[in-house]
Amino acid sequence: MMRHLTAADFRSMPWANGKGVTLELARADRAGAMLWRLSRASVVEDGDFSIFPGIERNLTVLTGPGFDLVGMGGDLRADPLRPVAFAGDVPVRAQGVTAPCDDFNVMTARHLPRPGVTVADAGRIVIADGIAALYALAGGQVNGQAVAAGDLILTEGALDWQMQGPAIAVSLPAAPMP
């Protein structure tokens, strides 16, 4: 099963801390609780991240110079196209924001296996099995279907992606696709 999601399918919502806006790309829930969520957001200034109890986060800067994540007992650098994982229930602050940055976020319930998040270069990705999401940073084709930059592909099972540029590939925990 494959779902091809475009901007018309995404949902804009305020951040939990009220200091920005998230573009929710896809989400899976069970019994009213989030299992996983894929989203995009902009970090335009230094500030606190929202707290998400029981959630693991993974952030990949898509555009802009990046910034530091400070406050979890150590600092992490969020550089462009380098995924960074951190706990969602630990207070974290973006620092050193010198220019607006757009980022791609993966959130998963802590009781599930952590997702694999990689940035793939132009070329071909073949997925034989499992649940995966591919977020296109450039156009391409999936199973012969045209995909534009900014589109999201969710799949359970086989996938053959011919990319013209980079994409973010996410292996998701075994939970239902929305």
From TrEMBL:
A Pfam family the protein falls into: HutD
Top-level taxonomic group: Bacteria
UniProt cross-references to InterPro entries, sorted A to Z: RmlC-like_jellyroll, RmlC_Cupin_sf, Uncharacterised_HutD/Ves
Transmembrane segments: none
PANTHER family reported for this sequence: PROTEIN VES (PTHR37943)
Name of the protein in question: HutD family protein
